[in-house]
Amino acid sequence: MSDEPGRLTRLTWGPAWCEAVGLVRGWMEEAGLATRLDAVGNLVGRREGRRPGAPALLVGSHLDTVIDAGRFDGVLGVLLALAAVEELAVREKRPAFALEVVAFADEEGVRFPCALTGSRAMAGTLDPAVLGLTDRDGTTLAEALRASGLDPDGLTGCARKPGEILGFLEAHIEQGPVLEHEGVALGLVRAIAGATRLEVLVEGRAGHAGTVPMRLRRDALAGAAEMVLAVERSARGEAELVATVGRLEVLPGAVNTIPGRVRFTIDLRSPEDRERTRALADLRSDLEEIARRRRLGLRLVPIHEAPAVACDPALLDALARARVRLGLPDRRLVSGAGHDAMAIAAIAPVAMLFVRCRGGISHDPAEHAAPADIEAALAVLVETIVLLSEEFR
Ligand SMILES: [Zn+2]
Prior knowledge:
Shape: globular
Structural class: alpha+beta
Bound molecules: zinc ion
Order of helices and strands: HEEEHEHHEHEEEHEEEEHEEHEHEH
Number of helices: 10
C-alpha cells in the first residue's frame, strides 16, 4: 500500500497508511484480538491473559515508511507480533499476562518535523505543541489527524499508565551490516544509541577566485573540509561511537568565487552518553582550533539531543534463553538507529530483536530479510513470550 505508484511511500495519516491500518486491524480481529485505534493513530490488538485485566506485554513496531522505502522496516515487527500471537493460539498457550500487538503511528517522522510521534504519545512524553507543526503544504499535524478520522484533542489520552505495561518487545530489521558480516541471523539489542545533532556555521570571506592571493584568503570551505575530517577522526578510535557529516552547503557556491560561508551538520551517536559528551567536547575544541588558525568565524548550533536507552536486562535475558532453547547463538549489538522502543522505555522495560538484512540496506527498495531469518525471529518471539509467561507472577 503506497501513496505513490511504482514505489513504496506510506506516510502516516496519508491514504495508504490509513488503508494499511484498516487491513492489519482486520487481520488482528480475525486472530481474535480486541482492537482499538488511539487518538494519534496507534493501532492496538489485545488478547487477555489467563487473568483478565492483567498487565500487557506489548509486541510490535510501526506501519509508516520513509519515501521510496523498503518493505520490511517497521512492518516486519508488526506482522511478526501478530504471527506470534496466532502461533500461541494454535498451540493453545494463553500467557498469564495480556498480549498486545502494537502498530505505532509515525515512527519515521517524514511529513512533520517530529518522529516517534505515536510511541511518545503512548509514553505520555509527547509535547502537545507538536499539533501545531506544519508539513510542506502548510497543513498542521492537528489537521492531518482530523483528515484521517483521528482526534487531536485526544492526544493526552493516548498515554498509558506505567502499571498497565509489563514490557515492550520490538523485532526489527537491523538496518546495518553487522549481523550479515558475522553470518548471524538474529541479534539482541543491548542499547539504543543516544545522539547529538549540530549545525555548524563557518564564516570566512568571499572573494574573486582569480584576484585574491592564497595567503590573503579566508576560505570557509577549505576550513570546513578540515573540520569534516576532524569529525571523522573523532570517532575513529572508539568502537561504538559514530560521527557523520551528512549535509554541507557552500555559499555563494560559484565556480569562480572563494566560499565565504559554509553550513554543515554533525550527527554523533553512542550507546554511552558519557562517551558521546566527551567526544563532543573534544570535537568542539578541535573545530575551534581550526577556525582560529584559519581566521574563520565558527558557530555550533545544537538541533537534536537524545540520551541512549539501555534495553532491560530481564527481557534481554528472556530473549537470550529463548535462543538457547532454540539452539541459536547469542549475539548482542547496539542499535545506532532510533526506534519506538526508545520512547516506550520511558514507561516500561523494553528489548529489541534485530533480524539480519541483506547488504545492511534499509530505507531503500533493496531492503530485504530472508524468510528463514524471519522464521527464526518468530520462533524466538514465541519462545520468549512462553518463557516470560512461565515466570510471571
Ligand atoms: Zn523502523
